[in-house]
Amino acid sequence: MCAGVGVHSGAHVRIVLSPAAADTGIVFIRSDVRGVDNIIRAHADSVGDTRNATTLRNEAGVEIATIEHLMSACMGLGVDNLIVEVDGPELPILDGSSAPFVQVLLNAGLKTLTAPQRVIRILAPVEVQMGAKRAALLPAEGFDGLELDVTIRFADAAIGVQRRSVQLSAETFLSDVADARTFGFLADVEAMRAAGLGRGASMDNTVVVGEGRVQNPEGLRFDDEFVRHKLLDAVGDLSLAGAPICGRFVADQPGHALNALLVRALLDTPEAWRWEIDTAAETGRGALPVLAAAAG
Predict the structure, then answer these.
(1) Which residues does 7 contact at the CB level (< 8 Å), separation at least 6?
(2) Domains of the chain
(3) Would you say the pTM of this structure is higher than 0.85?
(4) Is the pLDDT of residue 114 over 90?
(5) CA count, 13 A, side-chain hemisphere, 95
(6) What's the whole-number mean pLDDT along residues 108-120?
(7) Residues involved in catalysis
């Protein structure tokens, strides 16, 4: 269990994580919703809004927002099956990274299931573009898993052009990705609040950039924390393909909308991929055991 404020809604929310059987996938349950279907599957078919965060929506119109940091933690640790009960419209932002969710999962302990794990093997390039932004999924080259290569470009001198790549494993996720926080610009605050966004944002959960520098007194966790967070978001968004991806993700200026477009394009291009059984799935990949010891 953990609790906190939603970065966009500003609402206080509590989540409870429970184990799930093999092939359940990751499922969100809006425990505050009654009288209609309150179950939302973490899959590309459920993607709704992608402005500033990834929101999932079921056929009854019930939504859960800002799921990418928890999904990234699950993907990074190899958690495939999980029930997430939420008593509000948005997951808590916590410190703005995946690290608190990682800690909850690790405190609970991970259990390897006996059922075989399916993965998505990329066979041919799939590419999407939104203006100057581009992203592609390509066949793997020398690394039999998901490799990510991300470039970002911002006019603000505090960020500039940054590029980072990672071969995703539990170890690299923990050391290179999980701690990177979300970020925003001081100049955008009024417009976001007017649009009903960012109501729970603060320097406790967001790296704030303004006047050519980072405004947070503690500074950055990494010199390139901005591109690392884009990697973090991409890991979470790509998990909505429905299974781990074996291939290369290459992106220039990615965001939630572009990531969602790419996953949709992949699933709509069946000749570009195939299902495979991963006979060497990492220890810890699977469901969670009893979560009574989980801390938030």
Answers:
(1) 53, 66, 90, 93, 96, 182, 198, 199, 200, 201, 205, 206
(2) 2-287 (3.30.1700.10)
(3) yes
(4) no
(5) 15
(6) 90
(7) 256
